[in-house]
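Table S2 (text version). Query chain:
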Amino acid sequence: MIDYGVILAYGLGLILLFILGRIFIVPLKVVLKLVVNALLGAISIFLVNWVGGFFGFHIALNIYTAFIVGTLGIPGFVLLVILKLIFAIN
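Corresponding structure-token output:
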């Protein structure tokens, strides 16, 4: 004999699991994108500091620059370089 209540409970459980999975995967994608941008930004700042060391040019690698590059990506990196060139005090 088939108990339809158990089948209904399993079905509702699977639907709930699917809905919760969809709810939690979207913020995870956003966080993953921020982490990838931050890593690419840190690598680019490191490379600019390495090459710029020969010319006396460097960008500080701190929480503020990591936040700017992490949220804006490559345009944030370009922004930091432009700001460094504009406000360079030598």
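Notes on Table S2: The chain has a mean pLDDT of 83. Residues 4-52 form the longest helix (49 residues).
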